[in-house]
Design brief:
This protein is mostly beta strands. Helices cover 9% and strands 53% of the residues.
Length: 169
């Protein structure tokens, strides 16, 4: 493509190629880019990280987000005290190199879902680091990841007004 194509972080880029004819081949390219409505909130969580603690500001839709990594792959976690286990999208799992997982059926807020259980060597969020963490790979999950209680149970969690504080006990 002459001049290249720009792909911006936090946006969805779609390209559609179509062709006709054999000699000469006629090719057409359709290109579009869209950003989710809340890309600013998700890309740059409103968090303050200190030694052994962090504070997050509530987003307009009532959620709290934290930056982190899965096996060194950057993710944005939605803090979910209602989730039993850390859940990640299949896209994040692929980028983080998760190849082995065991098929499981899990119950979510949206009902029964076919998922895949895996163990990740490293998970970080804020200034906290965990090793050998159980995760569920969710095939149709929107967003990057949910930080569930298998990690959050290790912390003191407080919510006051529109601020959530997570600290080491």
């Amino acid at each position: 493509v002459a001049g290249g194509i720009s792909v911006d972080a936090g946006s969805t880029t779609s390209m559609q190629f179509s062709g006709s004819g054999l000699r000469p081949i006629q090719l057409a390219l359709a290109y579009s880019q869209a950003q989710p409505a809340s890309v600013q909130e998700v890309q740059q969580p409103a968090e303050v990280i200190g030694s052994g603690k962090m504070e997050m500001k509530q987003t307009r839709d009532g959620h709290y987000f934290s930056s982190g990594t899965i096996n060194g792959t950057p993710v944005v976690f939605m803090i979910d005290t209602g989730a039993t286990i850390v859940s990640i999208s299949s896209g994040i799992a692929a980028r983080a190199g998760i190849r082995k997982c065991t098929p499981r059926q899990v119950t979510t807020a949206n009902g029964q879902v076919d998922a895949c259980a895996a163990k990740v060597p490293e998970l970080t969020f804020g200034s906290f680091r965990f090793t050998q963490v159980d995760v569920m790979v969710m095939p149709n999950m929107p967003g990057d990841a949910l930080l569930g209680m298998n990690v959050l149970r290790n912390f003191r969690i407080e919510q006051a007004g529109k601020v959530m504080r997570i600290s080491a006990p």
